[in-house]
Each structure stands twice: as structure tokens, then as C-alpha cells.
Amino acid sequence: MIEQLSTFPNNVLAFVGRGQVTRADYDAVLMPAVEKVLARHNRVRLYYEIATDFTGIDPGAMWEDFKVGIEHLTRWERIAVVTDVEWIRHTIRLFGFLMPGTVKLFPTSEAARARSWIASTS
């Protein structure tokens, strides 16, 4: 399940992934939020936290995640990924360089620092 977080500046898309993340989560939660923020801002930021109860992501959701990133490739200013899930950390390390914005990984213990970084003006 994907839950949108609301305590961020209006140019920051913020989500937390819990349990099993599905394509339906992307269609119902993530995509409408992305389209809404992109309609208001030329450059946006993404905060994505993987909760401790995360159990996995369906292949359809992985495809949607890839498509969202590629379709709006030049519009991502910063991306903060908060997770202790090693395969996700490894994937971000391998492919993060493809994103034109700055991508940073944070361990779950540093979620507050990640939130501060994604919202900062510097």
C-alpha cells in the first residue's frame, strides 16, 4: 500500500510504502498526486519512505514506478529514498545516476534528516 504524506511543502511529493505495494496503489494514490503537483510546478521533489512493515512490490508496480520516473525525467529536482531494505538501496545506487536531479539514500533511522533535506531551499 502507498500512503501519501501531507506535511511537506507543496512542491514535494511524499509517500510511504507499507506492506505489499501494488500497481493499483500507483493508479489510485501516486499517479493522481504526481499529476496534480506537476500541473502546479515545473520542478518537483520526491520523498519516498519504505516502512518497516514493507513486504514487497508487485512487478506491475515496479513498471509503473519506472514509467513515472522516465515520463517526467527532467522535472525531478531532488529525490530522497528512506529505507533499510537492501535490495532497494542497491537498486537506487545502481540506477540513481540516471536521474537528472539529486538522489539521496537515507537509512530509516535518518528519516527526519531526509525530510529536512527534501524540504530545504539550499
What report would you give on this structure?
It is built from four helices and seven strands. The chain is globular and about 35 Å long. Helix 3 (86-95) links the parallel strand 6 and strand 7. Helix 1 (23-40) packs parallel to helix 2. With 122 residues, it is of the alpha/beta class. A five-stranded mixed β-sheet has the order 1-2-4-6-7, with helices on both faces. A two-stranded parallel ribbon has the order 3-5. 41% of the residues lie in helices and 26% in strands. 25% of the residues are buried.
Outline the secondary-structure elements.
Layout lengths: L1 E3 L7 E6 L2 E2 L1 H18 L3 E7 L5 E2 L1 H13 L4 E7 L3 H10 L6 E5 L4 H9 L3
Parallel strand pairs: 2-4, 3-5, 4-6, 6-7
Antiparallel strand pairs: 1-2
How would you summarize what this structure contains?
The chain has helices at 23-40, 59-71, 86-95, 111-119, and strands spanning 2-4, 12-17, 20-21, 44-50, 56-57, 76-82, 102-106. It is an alpha/beta fold. Helix 1 packs parallel to helix 2 (59-71).
Question: What proportion of the residues form beta strands (DSSP E)?
Answer: 25-35%
Please give the radius of gyration in angstroms: 13 Å
Q: Mean of residue pLDDT?
A: 89
- Provide the CATH topology: Transcription Regulator spoIIAA
Low-pLDDT stretches are none
Shape, per Cα inertia axes:
globular
Q: Note the main sheet.
A: 5 strands, mixed
Q: How does CATH name the architecture?
A: 2-Layer Sandwich
CATH superfamily: STAS domain
The overall strand count is: 7
User: What CATH first level would be assigned?
Assistant: Alpha Beta
Please bin the fraction of helical residues. Answer: 40-55%
Structural class category: alpha/beta
Query: What is the straight-line distance between the termini?
Result: 32 Å
Number of domains: 1
N-to-C order of helices and strands: EEEHEEHEHEH
How many H/I helical runs? 4
